[in-house]
Structure formats: C-alpha cells, structure tokens
Amino acid sequence: MIGKVEKIINGGWGIIRDNNKIVFLNYVLPGEEVEYSIKDKAKGIFWGETLNILSPSPYRKKPECSLFGECGGCVFQHIDYEYQTQIKTDIFIDDMKRIGSMNIKPDIFYKSPTYGYRIRGRLKAKESGKIGFIKKGTHTIIQIDNCLLFSEEMNSYLLDWNKQKNPPFFFQQDISYIENHDKSIHSYLSHSPKDDQKQKLDAFKSTTYSWKENSNSFVKLKIKDFEYRIKPSTFFQVNKYQFENMLDFVEDSLFKTEKAIDLYSGVGFFVPLLLKYSKKVIAVESYTESIKLAEQSFPDAKFINTNVDKFNFVKADIIIADPPRSGLSKYVIGNIIRLKYKRLIYISCSSATFARDAKILRDNGYSIKKLALIDLFPQTPHIEIMSVFDKL
Q1: Domain range for residue 187?
Q2: What's the CA gap between 230 and 287, in Å, rounded?
Q3: What CA–CA distances, in Å, run from 221 to 32, 230, 281, 363, 377?
Q4: What is the CATH number for 376?
Q5: Rounded CA gap, 55 and 61, in Å?
Q6: How far out from the chain centre does Cα 108 lie?
Q7: Do 261 and 355 belong to one domain?
Q8: Last residue of some domain: 194, 219, 244?
C-alpha cells in the first residue's frame, strides 16, 4: 500500500488516512509518500510498517546510531533537529486545540544539545549478563556498548562491562555520572551481589555500587547556587543542559509570599527556589528515599512523605505541581480549584494530559499566564511543558 503522511502525533507516530482507515507508522515525516504494510489492528486503528520512502522529506537525515530502528529510544534520529522542535511544537498545539479546546502557542521553546545530555540511564541485562536496552516492541535486550545520549564516562562503563567474559548478572542497573561531583560512575543494582559477583565489581575502580540493603551513598549535584543530593535509584531530571532553564522559568514566576506548596517534589528540585520567596515551604513526595535526600539538602522546608492523592491540602499563595505522565488526578485538581491558589506552576511531560487539565482549570477560573516547551529529550518525541496559571 502507498499513502501520504499527514502529520506526527504523540509518541512519534505518523498518520496516514486510507479509505477511512487511520494507519500509524514509525520513522516517517509529514508530507512523505511511503509504501507500507499493515501489521496489526486494535480498536479501529491500524498499525503499519514502513517498507519504502518514495518521496523523502527535505528534513530527513541519516541516523547516526547503527541501532536506530532496533533500539526503541531515539525514534526521531532520522529528523533534522530544528524540524524535531517544530514537530513537537505542532503536537502540543494540536493537543491543546483537540483536547483542551484552546488555540494557544508556547511563548518560548528551550532547545538542547542533541547528544550527550543524559546524566543517568537505566540498563537491562541479557542472560549472559551483558547490559543494554529493550528492543522496540519486544522483551528482548539489545547489548549497548555506546549510547549517543550518554556521556563519554557512562559509555566507557558500558563498554568495559560488556567486555567481560562472564559479567555478573543483575537484571537492572541504574547508572549516573555527575561531572561536578567525584568523577565516578554510580550504579544502583537490582539486587545485592553475591560474594563472587562482588569480586568482579571490585575491578571497576571508578564505580560506586549500591543496592537496596546498601543504599547510603549519594552524589552531590550543584546547579546555580543550590546543592542537591541524588542517587541513581531516585528520580531526577536527566538533561544537564536544561536544569538552569527550568529553574529560571520557575523563579521568574515566583513572588514573595507566606506559604508555598511543592507537589511531587522528588529530591527537591524546586524547593530551594521556593525557600527564597516563601516563609514556609511544604513539599509532598511519596518516595521515601527522595524525601530523605531532600530533607538533608534543604532542612528549612517541611517535607511530607505521602502520596499526593492523600495529602491534606492547605491554603497557600503558590503551588507547584510536577506530576507523572498521567497528569493531575481529580482529587488534586479538585483541591487546587477549591482552595483557589493565586498561582499554579504546572510542569507536565504529556501534552495530552496537560491539555485535559488546562481545560478543567480554565473552566474553573484559571488562565495561562506563561507557557514554555523545554526539550529534555532530543531525538525522541517527548517534550516537557512548563506553565503558569493564575486565578482570575
């Protein structure tokens, strides 16, 4: 079959409309005429496989990774970076119109260096102990000796690990490298190593290992004037080039106040900013390990270790929310509306759920004052949304 790609939607899928059918294809660009076949059908949607690009887009480029199309990570690597940013902007605008019933564009788009931006990554292991990523659309592990998104130090670790004749098996490793800390790779293992495995780990002199029963080690990450304690096992933003942009966006949106609340606070990324402007800061986070680190970093804030959906909301002037991809729950958004916070700073990693929540907020007396897109994940279809809502 032959068809023309209409646009790219969430997830990086290209859409072709064929005889009242909607066909989803990977690795295509808007305007391209392609030859494809149908692989699967679910709920009236057809999932296809691109067989041949008949009329390539002028924005198509040769992928730099030899595993492109096999590894499920960089599904945009065939697209010129400037055009990647346009596609992501178009996806956001389309979701806001289709889901949020709003005609709105971002005020600014924060671009990023396209490679070497990640400070951490999650590796899976083959039965042989070699580590890598999950192959797209399968449960198979692909051995990775070099990822273009990682730093040289992280890639050296991958290569040295996979060079071993019989590497110790850990089904998962979370690794991180912080340039301004101790120049060491930190790896959090999926389970405690046995004695013979510890001997092999000892050979990695520049690597610090931890696991559930031995997880006291942490690294210090300095951003601007703030110092954070983080671990490979705790969530933290991955793109080192965008840390200051995110903090600057939030600081530009703050004002002097008595009380501020930070929901889904993690290890306290926004907490030191709130402490500059608010006499009292309440931070809410469900992951105990993150709370412990945040309390050590920023003892002047009050940290509450609970699920945000169980938090007893109180009055404040400013509230920050950085939820998971599912967005704000009915409980959370209901309390925001009920308590009429003057300003909501909402950070989202999904334009679809952001559009849904923005519509609810708008219909309940909130308006968008400022809006930015931050490219935390170049070469992928993901985008971070930073926004400021004011109560009318």
Answers
A1: 120-219
A2: 13
A3: 44, 7, 21, 40, 20
A4: 3.40.50.150
A5: 13
A6: 19
A7: yes
A8: 219
What token pair was written down for 112? 């990023």
CB 75 within 8 A of CB 150: no
Do residues 110 and 373 lie in contact, with contact meaning Cβ atoms separated by under 8 Å?
Answer: yes
Nearest in space to 189 (alpha carbons), one of 203, 169, 173: 173
Asked whether residue 230 is domain-assigned, the answer is: no
| 356 and 379 assigned to the same domain | yes
pTM for the full model?
0.94
**Number of domains forming the structure of the chain:** 3
Per-residue pLDDT of the chain (392 residues; tens, 9 = 90+): 899 999 999 989 999 998 888 999 999 999 999 999 998 888 778 999 999 999 999 999 999 999 998 888 899 999 999 999 999 999 999 999 999 999 999 999 999 999 999 999 999 999 999 999 998 878 899 999 999 999 999 999 999 999 999 999 999 999 999 886 677 899 999 999 999 999 999 999 889 999 988 777 788 899 999 999 998 888 899 999 999 999 999 999 999 999 999 999 999 999 999 999 999 999 999 999 999 999 999 999 999 999 999 999 999 999 999 999 999 999 999 999 999 999 999 999 999 999 999 999 999 999 999 999 999 999 999 999 999 999 99
